[in-house]
Amino acid sequence: MRTLILSLFILCLSFSAFAQKQDRREKIKALKVSFITEKLDLTESEAQQFWPIYNAYQESTFKTRHNELRNIGKKIKENSETLTEKESQVLLDKLMEAEQRLHDENKQLIIKLKKILSSKKIILLKSAEEDFKRKLFEEYRRKRHTGNKGK
């Protein structure tokens, strides 16, 4: 009985942590949408066309970054000392393929966006993305730093 209760407790904690992580991702996504919309000064018509394209791009690149590149990085980190030349070549080829896919996705995004946004707004998008990442990282660092002071 104790094992069952303990298992259920661990399962609930795992689900809670997953839900919190998803909730945090959704909050970050909402902040990013607001930040980019403001920085680009999108009209209603531009926003209606822009967000489906941009969201599809984000989803696709997220999968490549977090599935493929993370797995490749994990294999390299765990086995860097014992990898054979052949295994290293396979990993390197997979890495180059994933990086090429990300590059191609970025090019396709720009091609699609040029049909609805000015070149200046596309450049502003790239700048806004970097600004958002920087602000997010700074906020993370600030929270981490202030959180550690009390410990």
Short structural description:
This protein has 151 residues and is mainly alpha-helical. The protein contains 4 helices and no strands. The radius of gyration is 21 Å and the shape is globular.
Structural class estimated from helices and strands = mainly alpha
> What's the helical proportion of residues?
over 70%
Average pLDDT confidence is: 85
Report the principal-axis shape. Answer: globular
Q: How much β-strand is present in the residues?
A: under 5%
- Give a short account of the largest sheet: none
Q: How many strand units?
A: 0
SSE blueprint and pairings:
Elements: H1 2-40, H2 44-79, H3 85-113, H4 119-149
Describe what you observe in this structure.
By secondary structure, the protein is mainly α. It has helices spanning 2-40, 44-79, 85-113, 119-149. Helix 1 (2-40) crosses helix 4 (119-149). The longest helix is centred in the N-terminal third of the chain and has 39 residues, at 2-40.
